[in-house]
What does this fold into?
Amino acid sequence: MKLSYPVLTSLIIFPLIGAILIFFSNKTKEFIIKLLALVITIITFLLCLPVYFCFDKKHVGMQFVEKVDWIKDWNISYHVGVDGISVLMVILAALISVLCVIVSWHSIKHRVKEYYINLLLTEGLMIGVFCALDVVLFYFLWEAMLIPMFLIIGVWGGPRRIYSAIKFFLYTLVGSLLMLVGIVVLYREGSTFNLIDLMNLKLSYGTQLLLFWAFFAAFAVKVPMIIVHTWLPDAHTEAPTAGSVFLAAILIKMGAYGFLRFSLSLFPDATIAMAPVMLVLSIIAIVYGGLICLVQTDIKRLIAYSSVSHMGFVTLGIFSLNTYGIEGGILQMINHGVITGGLFLCIGIVYERTHSRIISDYGGLANVMPVYAAFFLIFTLASIGLPGTNGFIGEFLSILGGFKASTFAGVIAATGIIIGAVYMLWLYQRVFFMGKNEKISALVDINATEIVTLLPLIIIVLWIGFFPNSFLSFMDATVNDLVDKLQKRVGSNGFDSLKGTTEIFAYIKSLV
Amino acid sequence: MIPKCYLFIPFLPLVSFVFNMLFGKRVLKDKAHLVPIVAVSGSLFFSFVVLIYVLFGNLVNEDLYTWVKSGDFKVSIGFLIDELTAVMLIVVSTVSLLVHVYSIGYMHGDERYSRFFAYLSLFTFSMLMLVMSNNFLQLYFGWEAVGLSSYFLIGFWYEKKSASDAAKKAFIVNRFGDFGFGLGVILLFITFGTLHYVPIFSDVELIKGQVFSFLGMDMDVATLIALLLFCGAVGKSAQLPLHTWLPDAMEGPTPVSALIHAATMVTAGVFLVARANPIFSLSPTALTVVALTGGITAIFAATIALVQNDIKRIIAYSTISQLGYMFVACGVGAYASGIFHLYTHAFFKALLFLCAGSVMHAMSGETNIQKMGGLKEHMPYTYWTMLIASLSIAGVPGFAGFFSKDDILWRAFASGTFTGKFVWFLCTVGAMLTAFYTFRIIFLTFHGTFRGTKEEKKHLHESPQNMTMPLVVLAGGSVLAGYVGIPVILGGNEWFSEFLSPVVGYAEGHGGHLAEFIVMLLSVIVAGFGIYGAYYIYLKRIDIANSAKETFKPIYNILYGKYYVDELYEYMVQRTILRFTKYVIEKVIDSWIIEGIVNGVPAAIGWLSMKVRRVQTGVVGHYSLAMALGFFVLTIMIVFKIWN
It folds into this structure.
């Protein structure tokens, strides 16, 4: 169904307008500012509903497309649209933003105005990244997003916020620079920045391989894949609650989204050749991230490392290059956003009361805060992939896909469900069970506002758990199309990774 | 066809769970048992309705809705009701209802009374979903959901560290089994392209002889799938080497032990093997593994049970051992005998636990049987019902356990393989041990003189009626349940096996009536021997027990220490995995190597820049020198055409 107004632009623009409104409002009137931010995020979320209901699930390709020339001489345009891969992420981003505003209501006490400006900017830019269909626009939004996020961590974060913010910024920036080089090369090959046109471009294998790695640098840092993951624990841990939630729920999904949008669609041959490498990195991330969780003493840090492990399932699914895997991977992106977002919200709620993230400062919390304990438990169970929660569907499909692509990868990935149960249940036991810790015996249970922030996520957890089809059906057409295209390439070319290296050199020589 | 009313069976308890979670604490308070009991009664009623339909040959295989669909992967939430399901429905809802009733008295006054009933309902729902499923993924759902309920209920008194430890342990140890189970499900899908029972079992012959390359080994597909599924069964049914969680699970309230850790959940493994019997039957290797695991576990757990003093733990080891018997039956292809034992075992083992709970109730929570004695006078209902349960589990003729255990022993003996004979031998020895340790409980608890404090003695009392009533009903079951499967040589027609045969087929192997009679006689003799042994040692010559303990000190210590399996695992996890993670992965790889590299590159660049900066000296002479050098080099390159 077509909508009569530019719905995606309204989604991107609305938070940005909100940021400008707040910019011009009086900074002493904090309540007005907060209210304004809340109203704007809620309206943005409501604006998503037409997207949800009018999205044509049978249609392959982009929907709600808008295209306006931006820099005509360079063929750069403002070009947005969504398909089965991105539509759910857009909606999730809008939802998470509402929750982030609510959760920041009392916890942010200084520089309130600037904080909400950054929050709204982040929201608008994030939604933009998932909608952008022009490579330059994509790159612009991708990089612009760093600035408000950097400020959120660096200004409103914990004790080591400066270190973490700079680390986060540098990691992502370095990765993105290689992507910029890649984009220039893409333009040189295709004379266009239009993503849809680029998808039909026939690139030589060597070029694909080079570009694959250039884009890999940007995406792998964001995901984060193993080896470039160390910014994540620091950034997650030091960021304020809303920052952690944004990072976990949306920002790191941009990496996985990038793989789907660019690597799989633009460089299919290179992706097929490099898939084994990616699978190995994924299973290392699953096991390695899980094991490290076992020895963490800081709750936030533990959840941060668990993200490394869970994102391993996402990349495992994506690079298994079959329907189950990719759909499982995309679903797992949403799941992880909901679950880890929920866990960070939960931790934020209790951090407000105790100002401690150290596990041993807790114990027996289930008696003090029973309702809170129930919410936390549901997220915990979803995180360990219990059937009936969303985590199960995503992990199962990813592992199924991984198993089909490589038995070895599937088996190793499945050990992740054991390790996941160990660290999450151990965490839950130490925080909520056993004797009451004196330090927390006076806490009050969560109030209505806090329940309102958690409830939507709980509903999604169970909704996807029992009715995953209402989400999987969004991606079915797009993913099937993508897999078909990839499968055709597998049939015609028997690429191996070693052969590629000589072609890369040939390509570089041709550039010089 | 069966009318849609079968949907009430699982969903009534689900409604009651949600209801109790939302309103139990605030509105219903100490009446919180009402809704769950009504719901489970409803389930029981409809289970009987369904059973009647099944008896008349009506079956159901219907999908409720499509659960997961991704590409050609399509799985529904659906229900399959056949003979096997019908039997399981009766077992689950009967025991569940009785345990619900019993819990009114047992849990009276607990501050989380309504929560307890909510969890019981959640468990009942999950277990019913498990047995009624028509595909492997929903089975997996029920499988994990019963594990979750079990986690909640073991850790019901989570303030105690031991209880929360036990709950966590149960979940995690089961996860090891589920790891294999999950892979088995995935492999099933990859092999058959579906996860629904009916199409898989009708195509099952096609995979005969197919080979799958699994981690570098070429394995027969059927064997591989069967073994992977069996991993799950080993975890859930607490067989070696994943048995360690079940004894610890006794930290939960006793009604929970009766329902979940004796009668229903732990038997899910046996149900899984019976359900997937067409696959298991394709693979002699897998069946041998099943039979050996069962046989060895049966005797392993029975020996531990001989020397334990905690009444619940003895019964827990007994459960492990009896589950071993059921796997023996499945392993020799006599699935019906396994299910038969599952069914009788549900009655007498639930009864044993509930009696133990009654005893603990009277003893103010004391579980050490060395501190009991002479309780017979104080609690007659508990005594007589527990005696019936003990006679049943010991295999005394006329009681339910006799028929089912004897059936297993005979099938194992008659299977005609070496494995069959071997496990038969193990099980016969196990039967003697079973009789011995059960009557050890009876004699130490109910006979002789009371060995507790005066204070405790004053407190001794029979349990209230809502606790004894379920005992009496179960005692009736422990006697009568066996009469649906009277063997041919005793004039019966093995109706139970006949009834299940459309699902699980007939056991192979045969032997003469004389041999069958001898096997039966032998099992009765060893049972009598065990009972007499317990009588002699613990009632007549009490000194023997202590002197034997001294004489066989090393053996006693090993048995009392449960073969130190827990310690071994503890060592592996604590010393090996956790230390490795902490010191190698976190400290060295993550903080030092990875951080070192990614921080090192910028640092190296920084260092290099510092060096290179020196070049910018600001002295014009240096610059012109560099320029001259560069010009010189360029000239040479052009002259010699190195450029090309």
